[in-house]
Amino acid sequence: xxxxxxKILICDLESRSFEAKVREDLSSEIGGLGIALPLFxxxxxxxxxxxxxxxxxxxxxxxxKTLALFRSPYDQTLATxxxxxxxxxxxxxxxxxxxxxxxxxxxxxxxxxGDDQILFRDAGKIWGxxxxxxxxxxxxxxxxxxxxxxxNIGPAGERKIAFSQVLVDEFFSFPRGGLGAKFGExxxxxxxxxxxxxxxxxxxxxxxxxxxxxxxxxxSFTRLSSLGTLKNLEAGQKLFLTPLKNLSGVGKANISVExxxxxxxxxxxxxxxxxxxxxxxxxxPAPYDYEAVVSLGSLLGIEKDAEIMELILFANDLxxxxxxxxxxxxxxxxSQNLSFGDLxxxxxxxxxxxxxxxxxxxxxxxxxxxxxxxxxxxxxxxxLGGREALxxxxxxxxxxxxxxxxxSTTEENRGFLLDLELYGKKFSDEELVDGVxxxxxxxxxxxxxxxxGYLGEIYEDIGNCFAALNSLGFQFAHEFLEGKxxxxxxxxxxxxxxxxFSPQRRFSNKFFQFPTAHDILDQERLWKMxxxxxxxxx
Amino acid sequence: xxxxxxxxRMQNCTGCGLCMLMSSxxxxxxxxxxxxxxxxxxxxxxxxxxxxxVDYGQKTDSEEVRDICPENCxxxxxx
Lengths: 538, 79
Fold this sequence. Notes:
By secondary structure, chain A is an alpha+beta fold. In chain A, 39% of the residues lie in helices and 17% in strands.
């Protein structure tokens, strides 16, 4: 049986109207990125922010992510971002495969999606409040407890600062790409979804068998469970490749993977047994992961666990994207000859960026690329593909994927893993590029389903996807799934180019000064790899 | 004495909701987070801890639901 045609909810903020549509034409697109791309193109004129899920979202273990697709406030190119929490399972309960937010509200607004009604509410009283305070307001007043998902921004998003995020269910987020600023542009303080919906299981035995098999696979991610994504620091520490102090060197950060940050609590996305989101409990509960800890820790020379957690909490509450903020602060520290490691100075800088009153701060609103592009600061800035770089310094694939716009989070980027696979090996430019493309196509399969990127081995496996769909009563040939993943990947890349994206040609010399998993990198070789990629996508 | 499912180690609960999903499958044959006899609720804003609200008006002593919990939060006990 083929998939039923997806039901799409379209909310227009400008007219405060909505429409639910069943889209027969999208039923062969599987879900996730597959249905989001055509919707994005269709509504491009109205600046869409699209949230989409897949056929197994919320009902099979590890299929717990929601994709956000939108034009990035950084540079108007295509941005993807992925969040967990309860959003995927609640969106599924509503019966919609995608939520499309169009236009701009005339005043600060909240969109509340329920089973019987969709409401556009005034959020003027909450506008200006911190991210956590806003969440508390929504938590106490909106939706059905345990059957809802809450998305909200903080002041950084309201002020359209590109490196801002959207919080999801308080401890999760849509990071990178600037979804927070996109909400700000739309005058959208938050979205609350709530549903009592359910779906019949056609063949409970088959469903339960696949469910338990996938559950077992997910439970095998024991290091991810016990350490969260901070486990990725292990390789950097072992190989002395962790970027330090705005990449003024690489080495071993003064962070213990096993004991950071003291007392903590694990939480899970809806329908996932892993529990890889780790919450530091002091000074107040705040989530930490590899990117946040390295960007706001070693990249800034902050070494004390408590200080790193304090800065994470501070920046999260203001609604900043933690990875990008760390890179921005690193540049400011070096270019202004400030002292690395000074927490109080960093807090002042963050508040100055937020206030946007000084010229340098307002110049930063479009992100670091825009800030440094025509100045001598460029060489000090860790910018890749128009975004602040991920804090990995592993080799060619990591730099290449980011400069091609193929993933700006640990979850989405496959380059740093490929670099580690190639550690100590000789490879041609073509082999590396083909490895990148092959990894991207596998990743795209998971993004159709949409499985968690951290559990890549599960939903990047064609057999698992086939079994998952089959257990829900849907049959697709392996070849069709593989072909669709390939088609969607190339479609995404081409659409990004059509929106004005072009691969980075100019790089900070910092990237070519220190040893990586592939020794010291050669800029000309990186350029050649970009050329090979461009030939491949044609 | 009738047996019931009880959350006895809820300090370990990660809020994954797999027990909600499984209780719906066991009780109603649906995949749903609302049809079953368990609701997992966050203790409060700012708190990464969860409560299990069990509807004891229904039969709850399901081994499948107890065993699905990755954190071993549940026991089946005599009422």
